Amino acid sequence: MNPRLLLAIYLAITLAPLGLSAFSGRPARSLWDELASGAGMLAYAIILAEFLLSGRFRSISRRIGMDVTMRFHQLFARSALVFALLHPFLYRAPSKPPYPWDTTRQLTLTDDLSAIASGVAAWLLLTPLVLQAIGRDRLDMRYEVWRLMHGLGAAAVAALLLHHTLAAGRYSADPVLAAVWIGLFAIALASLLSIYLVKPVLKRMRPWVVDSVRPVAARTWEVTLAPRGHGGLRYLAGQFAWLNIGHGPASLFENPFSISSAPAAGNRVAFIIKELGDFTRTVGRIRPGTPAYLDAPHGHLCVAGRDEPGIALIAGGVGIAPLLGILRQLRLDRDPRPTLLAYGNRVAEQIVCRDEIDDLARHHGTRVIHALQEPPPGWTGHSGMLDAAFFRDHLADPGMREWLFVICGPPAMMDAAETALIGLGVPARQIICERFRYD
Amino acid sequence: MIDPFSRYPAPVRHRLVYLAVTAIMLLGLLAFALRGVIAGG
Ligand SMILES: Cc1cc2nc3c(=O)[nH]c(=O)nc-3n(C[C@H](O)[C@H](O)[C@H](O)COP(=O)(O)OP(=O)(O)OC[C@H]3O[C@@H](n4cnc5c(N)ncnc54)[C@H](O)[C@@H]3O)c2cc1C
């Protein structure tokens, strides 16, 4: 789906309740009471839309990338929190039984204790839910535990707010708006059910098994999976999968990894995994034959269908994984376009699949520039980081302005690369990136 | 269509898009809240 269309749909979802309320035929109240109700409605609509921005829906993340989807999820969560926190404090009308002559409840707020209680409970739950997500890295909590708590907490907030909105909301007395709230809530709930119930069933029908695990650089492994009883995965080079090794298909123990194999190479899929934390540190001990499951393909880091006259791949560290998949595919496709790989690491031992990359340079004609921050004596590649100066030196050729640039690596390197490319006059649509960390 | 934010790198561009969407939401909220005041003259 086109990003502009996605934005338009997002705005339509979040503003629809306000629009329907405005045209419900009920007379307006004081400015403050309307601001309070409006802020509440906006907050709830944003919260329900957050479920669709969870990064797991291909129609969204395939177009804009999971990192961007998650960034919007995080940013709009802050907006929802602000609107929700303001909501009760903006009201001026008293909370009391309606006056007999005030049939549209223009002058009073609900005094129904259960309706108020569900709102207060959601209000109290929302703040820690958002703050815990913002400060997740500083919490001493496993990612999977946090993810479970976040999902359950969000579902509880959404359900409490549905009760509060329908029972306390003045405009929700309108059957059309009530139906919209119930419909949006049902979509949000269905999105959770699809991730936690439907996807596991689909994964169980397409199991995988670990074929091999081999070291490809310092503390970095290549894990290859083979399909068990099915034809494999249809994906594009550069995409990523949620990988679960050694757990049941419904397990929360799954991590995102780029696919480093090329679809044209056969039905096995490979991943290059760097040791970092709880799961990745155990990868070297995984035995061939271990069952695995994939939720894939995801992501938009693809050159398939792009017709730029050349392709430059810029990788830092394990960011090489998807770019290796792309290079492998270009080679198998015998793609005639010139390619350049700029690949930065701290030390030479971290260079992944070095022989294969040298081979790509020899046989596919890829121009490879290795950069090392701490080069060994006699190093002939670039010494230093992939920074602004590097990009100005190596990508300034005017002929490259029409190329496609694919970037994956540490955030600082990606920012430097993109800023330099835009400074060199490369249009943003010719730069594609996927971030491994979206917070 | 020309993308007004295409001069900026992705993180800046996304924040600008976020701010633009938030501004539209705030305008929607204001229009909703002010409709009584405006209608009442
Ligand atoms: C789109 C994408 C593609 C990636 N591709 C690769 C790759 O090809 N090779 C590679 O080595 N790494 C890749 N990563 C990073 C990889 O997912 C993390 O290093 C890994 O999940 C860390 O897990 P852990 O249990 O070892 O570490 P932990 O100590 O549990 O976590 C360290 C950090 O990793 C992140 N993380 C952990 N688990 C998850 C999860 N289930 N979902 C999302 N984030 C998580 C969190 O930010 C966490 O704070 C990719 C990440 C993304 C988002």
TrEMBL record, chain A:
A Pfam family matched in the record: Ferric_reduct
GO cellular component, one term: membrane
An example Gene Ontology molecular-function term: oxidoreductase activity
Presence of keyword Transcription regulation: no
Keyword Transmembrane helix: yes
Membrane-crossing segments per the record: 37-54, 75-93, 113-134, 146-166, 178-198
Localisation: Membrane
PROSITE patterns per the UniProt record, alphabetical: FAD_FR (PS51384)
Entry keywords, A to Z: Membrane, Transmembrane, Transmembrane helix
Domain (FAD-binding FR-type): residue spans on this chain: 203-304
InterPro entries: FAD-bd_FR_type, Fe3_Rdtase_TM_dom, Flavoprot_Pyr_Nucl_cyt_Rdtase, FNR_nucleotide-bd, MRET, OxRdtase_FAD/NAD-bd, Riboflavin_synthase-like_b-brl
Membrane topology reported for the UniProt record: Multi-pass membrane protein
Cofactor: [2Fe-2S] cluster
Protein name as it appears in the record: Oxidoreductase
Provenance organism: Seohaeicola zhoushanensis
Organism phylogeny: Bacteria, Pseudomonadati, Pseudomonadota, Alphaproteobacteria, Rhodobacterales
